[in-house]
Amino acid sequence: MESYSKSYDVIVVGGGNAAFSAAISAREKGMGVLVVEKGSQDKRGGNSYFTDGAIRMAYGDLEGLRSVYSDLKDEDYDRVDMPVYGEKEYYDDIMRVTNGKSEPALAKVLTSQSYPTIKWMQSHGVEFIVNENQYFEKDNKMSFWGGLPVKTYQKGIGLMTAWWKRADELGVDVLYNTKGTSLVKSDNAITGLVVEQDGKEMQIDTKSVILACGGFEASEQKRMKYIGDEWKNAVVRGTEHNTGDGLDMAIEAGATPIGDWSACHAHTTDYNAPRVGDFEKPGDIYKKSSYPLGLIVNNEGVRFVDEGADFRNYTYAKYGKETLKQPEQKAFQLYDQKVRPLLRVEYELEEASVVKADSLEELAEKMNVPKEKFLETIHTYNASVQEGDYDPSVKDGKSTKGLTPAKSNWALTFDEAPFYAYPVTCGITFTFGGIKVNDQAEVLDSEEQPIGGLYAAGEMVGGLFYENYPGGSGLMSGAVFGKLSGETAATYVESVTTKA
Ligand SMILES: Cc1cc2nc3c(=O)[nH]c(=O)nc-3n(C[C@H](O)[C@H](O)[C@H](O)COP(=O)(O)OP(=O)(O)OC[C@H]3O[C@@H](n4cnc5c(N)ncnc54)[C@H](O)[C@@H]3O)c2cc1C
């Protein structure tokens, strides 16, 4: 096999947020760094490129955000009502939504390092702004909810553009159209990476490898094998390149698989969204996130989840899966004129599929669902709605009574024309199964021992998310474990270099 002309201290496999966090962190420590990205230059950046840029950190209180926001003017701070959100709240959220299954040591790293990592990202040119989807105007105040008040400037596109620029400035080498295929080891330590480029294999010598090449959500075969046959039909919301290659490579090299291999993050997405993420239309424009304010029915006109169980940030990652279980994997989000003005920006886009009607009967016809059943669902729901103060910025407890499934918050009657129905299906975002790493991002073998010079970051880290996940944690986890893996790899490389 051909050998590449140059050797490296650190090779990072993957080209998303976790990969570039790792590459820049290692480069900052003086390492010679190569990033190997499977995508072409037109299809680079992974799922990170497709994101809304929402990023969850333990900011503490509003003061903690002053040096983070680049767009909020001093005079606007008086108008902000910001709940406290520190390490404890973040950690508790992870444990709550994963039913206590998240690996405590990893959750601790993520939550404790989130804020310092945001400051580090800023120091490398990543810009953060107000997350406009996470507050409601109330008594002339911006009332934030859900622990996610920050997003990256220009979403995932802005994030990745900042990383590419910085990597270039720092002298990180990047190979596009290059797929990592296997790890080369000697005496239980990494010595190289085999890659495939233009159909040709070559070996690149290196002292360490950081695997940051995502999960297996874009592999139809692996989705069916690990998550279930029905996942064949899921829309892939992000890159086509995340087919689990890094997981295969790591396991083949002795890494321990861990975490929730049978589960994934999935979101309700526009029924007519592209079947796989379109790099010409990034920005997460097909998701549909305002359902806690409305109702969801399936193709038979029947409700199947508690739309108002919690804020969207804590239910959306699992409601995609519920949609997949419905006939034809199809559902409709319903809103009447009372709540229509409160919907998020994605409902305004020309890409949004919608039917609009002046009566419930007309709506059922346009949705092509059984009219009698649909009307019964709506009338039964309306009759069960309890009195109470409606407030979308808090869990208002305005609920239904005697209805299954209940609507536990934000239950308003559905009775004010015009009525809107948005057809949705299940879009898979990323998979939860990964490989075992310790709190230094070192990849562990079956004896719980680090494999010399092998690290993992981002979606490849197993054991953090089970069943569900607090929105905005994917980017944060990628950055935290990316930065950490770069630092640990640099320390390792220095130690083996000194010994030599
Ligand atoms: C539509 C959408 C919206 C989202 N919105 C948010 C959000 O607002 N906030 C949030 O926190 N999370 C969000 N997520 C989740 C988020 O994208 C991920 O959690 C995060 O980006 C993972 O980062 P990563 O670097 O691990 O993976 P990725 O960004 O997916 O990067 C993986 C990289 O590896 C490359 N690769 C794959 N195989 C190989 C190989 N064999 N060799 C070389 N390279 C390879 C891929 O091309 C890609 O560049 C969203 C995801 C999607 C799809």
Automatic annotation (TrEMBL):
Gene3D superfamilies for this protein: FAD/NAD(P)-binding domain (3.50.50.60), Succinate dehydrogenase/fumarate reductase flavoprotein, catalytic domain (3.90.700.10)
Pfam families in alphabetical order: FAD_binding_2
FAD-dependent oxidoreductase 2 FAD-binding domain segment(s): 9-473
Segment forming the signal sequence: none
InterPro entries named among the record's database cross-references: FAD-dep_OxRdtase_2_FAD-bd, FAD-oxidoreductase_2, FAD/NAD-bd_sf, Succ_DH/fumarate_Rdtase_cat_sf
UniProt entry tagged with the keyword Transmembrane helix: no
Keywords assigned by UniProt, alphabetized: FAD, Flavoprotein, Oxidoreductase
UniProt cofactor(s): FAD
Keyword Hydrolase: no
The organism's place on the tree of life at top rank: Bacteria
Annotated protein name in UniProt: Tricarballylate dehydrogenase
Organism: Geomicrobium sediminis
